[in-house]
Amino acid sequence: MPEIWVVSAPGPQALEKLNAATKPNNLSVNYKFHIPDLKVGTLDTLVGLTDDLAKLDTYVEGIIRKLVNYMEEILEDQKEMLHENLHVNNVDVPQYLTRFQWDMAKYPARQPLPAIAEIINKQVQQIETDLKQKASAYNSLKTNLQNLERKQIGSLLLRSLGDIVKKEHFVLDSEYLTTLLVVVPNNICKDWEKGYENVTDFIVPRSSQKIYADNEHTLYNVTLFKKVVDEFKNKAREKKFIVRDFTYSEEQLAAGKSHHAKLKMDKSRQLSVLFRWLKINFSECFVAYIHVKALRVFVESVLRYGLPVNFQAMLLQPAKNTKKLREVLNKLYSHLDSSLAAGSIDDVPGGLASFGVEEYYPYVFFKINIDMCEKA
Length: 376
Prior knowledge:
alpha+beta; four-stranded antiparallel beta sheet; 47% helix
């Protein structure tokens, strides 16, 4: 469904006439767009509401796009699952649109039109606020986990060493001796292996062993007397041997692994809750969006066709030849505004552009943007 149009025309047989005009060339599939008997109010109210509803339309669509974009973002390498999760009231978007029924419980039809618009506005504002809070919490957790995992796979100069070293690499619980971990650039490993015993005095002979290597560096251990640690660090640095600050503690290593496991579990749990919330509120926002469209159709139709209310709103699913469909519609409804041929908004008297109208036709016309639901 690349495009969905909503048009309205006066008269009880409007849908039948539309079908008769579009069916011969299969220009569109048409459905009745059910709008209840809403409270008209005053003409001034309707004119003022035109601009407010145009802004509300844009706002709600923007929040839907944020929800969809964030759903796609958190799916990460499973983005193909997005489309199958974009349902509205437990049905897919096309089915919801073609079977649209006004939600009387959420948006009581007996309320004044501005009150209904305000209900929608407050509802969507709350969703936007909740989205910011939930996204911030999840992104913070995700960043903490990424930073932790980055330390486990990065350069030996920065990465965590807890998953590399073992207890046997260290001299522990000695009053005089200690073991240091030294990172050596690969191109001078031979210098280390031949000369580490002479970096300073009081180094245990043959105490260094190669523990781990990556593409740029190699990790060694070395045992020496505690009293020369500072001197050793300084002289090693002069030779481009970097001593890593590390104290072997099984308790701390176990706590680190437990923290990592907890972060992964928290992320998985929050992802599940967040994704379910996004699905629910995509549905809520899309329902609100279509009700805004219905309000706009109603207000514009009353302003165009007058009172008593006697128009039929219709949803069109155009085929490929939208240009031909537009020509047929203009011909079918040209009698509704004989003083103006369909054309640019610049041709429209009265500056309807100020009301958010970008295209003007002899009939009431709005487009439903569903490209935001077609990302996957």
